[in-house]
Amino acid sequence: MGTKSEAPWHTPVVESLRAGPGTRVSELDTNGTPGFEGDKALAERLLVERGAALSDLQGKLFANGRIGDPRSVLLILQGMDTAGKGGMVRHVIGHVDPQGVDHTAFGVPTAEEKRHHFLWRIVKALPRGGQLGVFDRSHYEDVLVARVRSLVPENVWRRRYDEINQFESEITATGTTLVKVAMFVSLDEQKKRLSERLERRDKYWKYDPSDVSERALWPQYQEAYQDMLDKTNTENAPWYVIPCDRKWYSRIAVTELLIDVFERLDLDWPDPTFDIEVEKRRLAKA
Amino acid sequence: MGTKSEAPWHTPVVESLRAGPGTRVSELDTNGTPGFEGDKALAERLLVERGAALSDLQGKLFANGRIGDPRSVLLILQGMDTAGKGGMVRHVIGHVDPQGVDHTAFGVPTAEEKRHHFLWRIVKALPRGGQLGVFDRSHYEDVLVARVRSLVPENVWRRRYDEINQFESEITATGTTLVKVAMFVSLDEQKKRLSERLERRDKYWKYDPSDVSERALWPQYQEAYQDMLDKTNTENAPWYVIPCDRKWYSRIAVTELLIDVFERLDLDWPDPTFDIEVEKRRLAKA
Questions:
Q1: Which of A142, A204, B161, B266 could form a disulfide with A118 if both were Cys (CB 3.0 to 4.6 A apart)?
Q2: Chain B residue with minimal CA distance to A193?
C-alpha cells in the first residue's frame, strides 16, 4: 500500500497506527479499525490477496539473502494474553514461504536464560539476511512482566529501556528492519476469549490459570506498556499500536504494515552472478 | 489416508513409495505417479484439502507439545539439485501453522561446522516436542556429496552409515518420528529445470554453476544414493523414494506420507491440566 492511501483504506496504517507522544494506552479504542473503511468480509478477502503480495515481497528478500544481502525484517509481536499473537502468526505469516520465515516464541526464561543478560536469548534468535523473523513476545517482556511482577529490582528494569534502544539501534544499523507491534484487547474481550478456552476441548491447552491472575494487574500492565511505548518508540524502531478486539482488522493491518516495510526496501530480483550465455552453453553440453 | 487405500489412490503411499531391498536408483521411473489414479488438476485440488488436514493434525501435536508431550515429527528432504525440495517446503509445509514448523536448510558446512562431528549441526536443529521439523538436506549430505567429492577419506564416510543408524535410532526412541524422503528427477528433467533458471530473471538466484558440474558425476551420485538407501533404510527410520519429474505428484505424495505418520501418532486434544469449573468461577470474578 505504500504511504499513500488506497481503498478501502482512507489512511495508511503506517500513519494511523504509529505510536506517538499522544498515545495513551488507557484510552485506546481496542474495538476500532483505524484507517479502514471495509467490513470483516472485505478484510478477510483482502487478507488472501495481500498475504500473497507479502509472500512475493518476502520471496525477493529471500533471493537477495541467498546472494549475500544482509538485510532482514523482524516482526515483534507484543501483547497481553489473548491479544491474538498466535493467530497473527498463523493467519498472516502463514502466507509466507516457510523457507523465509524464522519464528521464535519466547516463554518464561529457562534457568540457563536467567543466568545470562536478558538480550542473550534474543540475539541468538535474530534473523539472518533474507529472512522474515517473527518474535512472539520478545525482550519487551523484560520491561513488562519483569516490571509488573518485580522479577528484577527496579534499577535493573529501569536501565533496560536504554539498553533496548541501544541494541535496536545496532541491529537496524546492520540491516534488520524492525516492525514493532503492540497488540491491545479490552478487559471484556479478554474475558470472552478466556471463557472460550474453557468451553472448547480444542482450546483447553491454550488456557493458563495464571492468565486470570494477571487480570488483577491490568492497570500496572497498562502503565508498563505506556512506559514501553514512551521510552522505546524511536525513529529507527517505531512502535505500531494495534486495536485487536476485531481479529480481522488486526490481521489485515499488520499485513499492510509488513508490506509497507518490504516495499521501502525497494527489492528487485538479484542480478545473475554468472555469465548467462556461458552457462547456457555449459548446460547444453552437460 | 492411513494404510488403506482411498480414491484417487489405489495403493497408500506408505506402501508404494517405501524403499526396499529391490529399490534400484538407476532404474527408477522418475516420471511415475505410484499409487495415484488422478491427474495434475485433481492432485492440485487435493493438495489444498489434504494440506488443511495436515495442518489440523500438526495443530494437535503442537497442543500436546505445549503440555509437555516430547513427540515431534522430522521430515528429511534429500535429493539432487532441482528435485524440488524448496517447492516441497513452500507448497506442502506452507499449509501448516508457522508456529509448529521448525525449518532448517543445510548448506555447505561452515568453517565452524567443519571443526565438529558431522552430526553436530544436525543435533542443534532437531525439533522440540510438538514441532514438525523440516530438514532441506541433512546429515545424508555427509554420505552423498562428501563421498562423491571425496571431501573426507573413504574410511570416514564408510563408518557414517552406522553412525547415522545409531543416531536415528536414538532420536526415534526419544519421540521423534522420522520421515525420510529421497527425491529423484531424471537427468533430462534436471536440464529442463536448470535451463529455466537461466531464462527467468526471478530464477537466476537459484542457479549455481556448480550444479552443472555435478551432472557429470550423476552415476557416482546414483551409486551413493543407492548405498544410502541400502544401508540406512531401517525399520524405525525408513526411506521413501519419490519420483519428482511431476511436481504435482511429489507434493501430494509427501503430504499423504506426513498425514499417515501423524495419524499413527493417534493424537487427541490434550485434557485440561486444571479444574474447568473452578476456573470458570475464578474468571467470572476477575
A1: A142
A2: B283
How far, CA to CA in Å, does A227 sit from each of A22, A50, A194, A223, B286? 13, 33, 26, 6, 25
Q: Could you read off the pLDDT of B215-227 as tens digits, one per residue?
A: 999 999 999 999 9
Q: Map out the domains of chain B as residue ranges.
A: 13-269
**Burial of B125 from C-beta contacts in 10 A (0-12 / 13-18 / 19+):** middle
Location of C-alpha cell 536448470: B194
State the complex-level ipTM: 0.94
Point out the residue among A136, A216, A282 whose CB comes nearest to the CB of B286: A216
Instruction: Report the alpha-carbon distance of residue B272 to residue B266 in Å, rounded.
Output: 18
Query: Which of B99, B200, B218 is the best residue to mutate to test the A interface, defined by the most A CB atoms within 10 Å of its own CB?
Result: B99
- Among 3.30.300.30, 3.40.50.300, 3.30.70.20, 3.10.129.10, name the CATH number for the domain at A13-267: 3.40.50.300
How many angstroms separate the CA atoms of A73 and A54, rounded?
A: 12
Instruction: Identify the residue whose cell numbers are 533496548.
Output: A164
Which chain B residues touch A282 with a CB distance below 8 Å? 209, 212
Arithmetic mean of pLDDT, B63-77: 97
Instruction: Determine if residue A98 is left, alpha or beta; phi over 0 gives left, psi from -120 to 50 gives alpha, anything else beta.
Output: alpha
B216 Cα to chain A: minimum distance (Å): 7
Report cis status (omega within 30 of 0) of the bond before B109.
Answer: no
Backbone angles phi, psi at A127, to 5 degrees: -70, 145
Cα(A10)–Cα(B191) distance, integer angstroms: 50
How far apart are the C-alpha atoms of B20 and B113, rounded to whole Å? Answer: 33
Instruction: Determine the Cα–Cα distance for residues B230 and B24; give it in Å rounded to an integer.
Output: 10
CATH value of B13-269 in 3.50.50.60, 3.40.309.10, 1.10.260.40, 3.40.50.300: 3.40.50.300
Residues 6+ apart with CB under 8 A from B213: A286
Residue B191 forms contact with A (CB below 8 Å): yes
Provide the pLDDT for residue A1.
46
